[in-house]
Amino acid sequence: MFGAKQIEELVKPLAKSVVKRNPKGFDYVEGWHAIAEANRIFGFDGWNRETLDLVQLGEPQQVNGNWRVAYRCRVRVTVYAGERIITRDGTGYGSGIVKDIRDAHEGAVKEAETDAMKRALMTFGNPFGLALYDKDKTNVCDDPPEPAVSDEAKQQFISACLKKMEAFDNVNALGEWWKSDEQKQARRDFDLSNEQVEALKGAAMRRRDDLAKGKKAA
């Protein structure tokens, strides 16, 4: 059985930002995204896929100097949900049209396998494209806003920074840490106010002055 968190993820709406549109006007999610979502929701060792059937459709044909090849594929996706093993099959189609017939075969096979895998994964929920099969696309939504950083988390970050400053026994090392891209990004990620940043900067300057006078952390 799926865990509560997994079920929560499977019923979430599909974000518009991951939806693509092919030249024929059909919406879809890319293969890499489906795999990434499966890894995220089921776990890297919580699922697998296997190709059950791969059939070339007709003979290769030349079209305007290119070779055209087509394949049909059937893929089985297996998901381990606690003590249960869930299997879903999907059938997909792929075509390759390029000058080199070997590349045409390779492209067609990859496309067919990916299409079949996505169709199998789609049955598990919206993150894999199920929402796109509803013509009204009621479960395709704008990306949710980033969750706000809590005051408690901000204070924990500030406290960690102050502790880090006290641990420095070298002025240059302190300065490099404060000016580093990593530390700047961290201050942005925790959404510190201008007042909080200035307070931290003031603490860093006081620690710098103490170090310059030869005072080390107690």
Can you offer a commentary on this structure?
With 218 residues, this protein is of the alpha+beta class. Helices cover 44% and strands 25% of the residues. It is built from seven helices and eight strands; from the N terminus they run αβββαββββαβαααα. The strands form three sheets. Strands 4, 5, 6 and 7 form a four-stranded antiparallel beta sheet that branches. The chain starts with a helix and ends in a 6-residue tail after the last helix.
Mean pLDDT: 92
Described by strand count, sense and barrel closure, the largest sheet is: 4 strands, antiparallel
Low-confidence stretches: none
Proportion of residues in β-strands? 15-25%
Radius of gyration: 27 Å
Helix-strand category: alpha+beta
Beta strand count: 8
For the termini, the CA-CA separation is 54 Å
Assign a percent range to the helix content. 40-55%
Query: Number of helix segments?
Result: 7
Order of helices and strands: HEEEHEEEEHEHHHH
Using the alpha-carbon principal axes, give the shape.
Answer: elongated
